[in-house]
Design brief:
Length: 303
């Protein structure tokens, strides 16, 4: 991506270097869970074919809540997030994140304007390790996530190293896809979709909740594609191989890919984010068509 010299966002909060924040891992069912518990739940979920969020709820003595990747939360803490300094990050990776966020602001402001609506951009907080959020304590172990309670995207930049080294998905456009995906969850929140889905979730089985989560995540992938479509038209900043970088990232974090790596078999009923094929497909739909209407994963018989 030719991103040097592009506008940077005013909505960055950089809390890196402030030391550990909060009292432990993410908060489920009113309790704080450490990284060890999260890892146990993830492994148990893969082995047993059970949504790890259910195991987290059982281990914490309460109901599991979805923190990662923007699914609506239950029993969230509604306090203010910790103070982070707003301004322009000085390191190159921080500046890159700021540029991509600024581009999402430009794209979604224009898309909403054309639909007769007003877009309120999210804040994006850079943090190290842990950070307080309106959805409980955010932990880097869960990867980047969006919290609807405070309308913030949270990213520990060490995830980008993980994306490159463990998931074999290097490149700046792969990183931009991750940011745009989380902003896609903010778009879902802005159009009122998350509130509607939260009301429906309480009446669903675990299998139905998983299927709903997949559609939510695939739509965020499609929204990331919308951003890619319009930002490329406005800036012409993509280079050869950039789109392939994003598709590799989508493949690497598909549920089937992760399940195969962890235990050698695939359990579709335990999917919460979608298969590698689905994630690539919906990103490409958004990038090709560039419209909200094209990204209605909830109207598809099978996304």
């Amino acid at each position: 991506m030719r991103w040097d010299g592009q506008r940077e966002s005013d909505n960055i909060e950089d809390s890196r270097g402030q030391g550990p924040m909060g009292g432990g891992g993410m908060r489920f069912g009113g309790r704080s869970l450490g990284i060890g518990t999260i890892v146990v739940a993830l492994i148990g979920g893969w082995v047993l074919g059970i949504n790890p969020l259910t195991l987290l709820g059982m281990l914490s003595g309460g109901d599991g809540i979805q923190m990662e990747s923007g699914a609506p939360s239950q029993q969230v803490q509604r306090g203010p997030a910790g103070a982070g300094s707003e301004g322009t990050p000085q390191d190159r990776t921080g500046k890159f994140v700021s540029v991509v966020l600024a581009s999402t602001e430009d794209v979604w402001t224009d898309v909403f304007r054309q639909a007769g609506r007003s877009y309120q951009p999210p804040k994006l907080r850079l943090f190290d390790g842990r950070t307080p959020t309106a959805c409980g304590t955010g932990d880097a172990a869960a990867g980047p996530f969006y919290c609807p309670g405070d309308q913030r995207v949270y990213i520990d930049l060490s995830f980008f190293q993980l994306l490159e080294q463990r998931f074999k998905a290097p490149g700046d456009f792969a990183q931009a896809y991750v940011i745009a995906h989380e902003v896609g969850h903010h778009v879902q929140n802005q159009i009122g979709l998350m509130d509607k889905l939260q009301a429906a979730r309480s009446r669903m089985s675990e299998k139905q909740n998983n299927a709903l989560s997949v559609r939510l995540e695939l739509q965020a992938d499609c929204f990331a594609g919308i951003w890619a479509h319009h930002s490329e038209r406005a800036k012409g900043w993509l280079e050869k191989g950039d789109v392939e970088e994003a598709l590799r990232a989508a493949t690497a974090i598909g549920d089937d890919t992760l399940q195969k790596q962890s235990r050698g078999v695939v359990v579709p009923d335990a999917f919460t984010h979608g298969s590698a094929r689905q994630r690539m497909q919906w990103f490409q739909i958004g990038m090709t068509q560039g419209t909200l209407a094209a990204c209605d994963t909830f109207k598809q018989t099978s996304p």
